[in-house]
TrEMBL record:
GO terms for molecular function: methenyltetrahydrofolate cyclohydrolase activity; methylenetetrahydrofolate dehydrogenase (NADP+) activity. Residues 138-278 form the Tetrahydrofolate dehydrogenase/cyclohydrolase NAD(P)-binding domain. NADP(+) binds at G164, R165, S166, I230. It comes from Anaerocolumna jejuensis DSM 15929. Homodimer. Residues 4-118 form the Tetrahydrofolate dehydrogenase/cyclohydrolase catalytic domain. SUPFAM superfamilies: Aminoacid dehydrogenase-like, N-terminal domain, NAD(P)-binding Rossmann-fold domains. Its EC number is 1.5.1.5, 3.5.4.9. The gene is folD. Belongs to the tetrahydrofolate dehydrogenase/cyclohydrolase family. GO terms for cellular component: cytosol. Catalyzes the oxidation of 5,10-methylenetetrahydrofolate to 5,10-methenyltetrahydrofolate and then the hydrolysis of 5,10-methenyltetrahydrofolate to 10-formyltetrahydrofolate. One of its GO terms (biological process) is purine nucleotide biosynthetic process. This is Bifunctional protein FolD. Gene3D superfamilies: Leucine Dehydrogenase, chain A, domain 1, NAD(P)-binding Rossmann-like Domain.
Length: 285
């Protein structure tokens, strides 16, 4: 078994990012991400912590606006609009999912597509689905692609099976894998014979948010397993894959922690840098 760790992937990108941030600073621009957190969700807080650590270690800025769980729709829209209009803000990230009382449809239509670094807006979704390269795919889906690319996993003609169809991970990942000529199956809670579907995969991607659900019977010995899940079980972080059951059996696997999550944060930084560079190019014309 080979462990596909996220850290070498993240490190391989970091040096180039430092140079690009420096270059921007020479022009008087510091890449800045504005994050909106609603309530005190544990998942959001752990992501927030990683973001702040990563951005500050590379001299970029991540600023968090915390809003109460019962925040009003108008308030959140006003906060986003202010960020849209602030030239010092290059990326906007809202943690998902939102509380039930807020309209996701309305919020995603307010956020400026050019600052939408995690693919929430219609504009960016459309860009992703139509294959245009001027948008930002969701960071997690892109982190999976980054890992496959770094470890030179050939995708052309391979059968990729994704467990999970959310807009943040499963669906966009299907599109990105299709672009690399994989044959894609997206499974979900209504899928029949899930273990059998999964067993047929050359590349199995678990993004269901269900701790340890992928056991050995879902896998095969030549399989590459990517575990996107971040779940907390008895105070410990674990993925959607039952690691101890599967790791020895398959060809390669990403660990949790230390896998996809590590690269997600760096993709977010990448998008923020690109957005700052695009802004820089425009103000200099
Ligand atoms: N590594 C990282 O950087 C990140 C990790 N995550 C993690 O990824 C996981 C998924 O997140 P997210 O997409 O937001 O989750 P959602 O809850 O939005 O979506 C889960 C999807 O998985 C499907 N599903 C759930 N349980 C099962 C099951 N037992 N069998 C088959 N399908 C199932 C659901 O099916 P249906 O549609 O039918 O309900 C749904 O499509 C979570 O653990 C999350 O913490 C999320 C973002 C970033
Ligand atoms: N719009 C939106 N996009 C998201 O991508 C999103 C979200 N909302 N809401 C919350 C979940 C959760 N999530 C995490 C990502 C990384 C770590 C994390 O801890 N990363 C560590 C490493 C963890 C590991 O080693 O696996 C790091 O970057 O160093 C945690 C949680 C993103 N999410």
């Amino acid at each position: 078994m080979m462990e596909l760790r996220g850290l070498p992937v993240a490190n391989s990108l970091t040096e180039a990012f430092k140079l690009r941030i420096n270059q921007l600073k020479l022009g008087g621009i510091t890449p800045k991400l504005s994050v909106i957190r609603i309530g005190n969700n544990e998942d959001d807080i752990s992501y927030e912590r990683s973001i702040i650590k990563k951005f500050s270690s590379l001299d970029a800025v991540a600023e968090v606006t915390g809003l109460p769980y019962d925040v009003r729709q108008e308030t959140i829209e006003a906060v986003i609009k202010k960020m849209n209009n602030d030239n010092n803000v290059h990326g906007i990230l809202l943690f998902r999912p939102f509380p039930e009382h807020l309209s996701y449809e309305k919020i995603k239509s307010v956020i400026n597509g050019d600052k939408d670094v995690d693919c929430m807006s219609q504009t960016n979704m459309a860009r992703l689905f139509s294959g245009e390269k001027n948008g930002y795919p969701p960071c997690t889906a892109q982190a999976v692609m980054e890992i496959l690319d770094y470890y030179k996993v050939d995708l052309a003609g391979k059968k990729a099976v994704i467990v999970g169809r959310s807009l943040v991970v499963g669906k966009p990942l299907g599109i990105l894998l299709l672009e690399k000529n994989a044959t894609v199956t997206i499974c979900h809670s209504k899928t029949k014979n899930l273990p059998e579907e999964c067993r047929r995969a050359d590349i199995l991607i678990a993004c269901a948010g269900s701790a340890n659900m992928i056991t050995r019977e879902f896998t095969n010995p030549s399989q590459i397993v990517i575990d996107v899940g971040i779940n907390v079980e008895e105070g410990r972080l674990c993925g959607d894959v039952k690691y101890d059951d599967v790791a020895d059996y398959v060809q390669a696997i990403t660990p949790v922690p230390g896998g996809v999550g590590t690269v997600t944060t760096i993709e977010l930084l990448k998008h923020t840098i690109i957005s700052a560079e695009r802004y820089n190019a425009v103000v200099r014309i």
